[in-house]
Sequence to fold (165 residues):
Amino acid sequence: MKNVLNKFYFLIILLMAHPVYSDDVSSIRQMSFGLATDIAKHAVDACFEQGYQVAAVVVDRASNVLVSIRHQNANKFTAEIANRKANTVILGGVSTAEFKRNRVDILAEMNLVDGIMVLEGGLPIHAAGSLLGGIGVSGAPGGERDAVCAQKAIDAVQERLDFVE
Fold:
């Protein structure tokens, strides 16, 4: 009986200690390479259907590039600009258009930050209330057209995003 009580007390102590250490390790949602690839490809395809040769870059929540796709006729600068737009999404947690509207006071300074470009065409990618990453699109005539292609790409995989637990 004493052995059973000792095990019971040990279990109680262990359960009581658990909340103390539960904040030491976090669990985050991450976008898969397959999902990122599909989003980027949908964006390039959506713009190509409109007659635009663009690049699309998908980054994770830490601004690490997961996928960079460039239409064969898009120049190399489109990929760089798309990457910077995606990074701006992660910096602000909102679309680049919204960031631009909200932070008119620091736009000139933000465009001097390495890896950031505050132009329309970057959108956040969310699932189950978490920011998974961002997409930046560049190469269409005007950032608003880039943003449309990015939104079409997210819409194309929205069902996959909606069913994340």
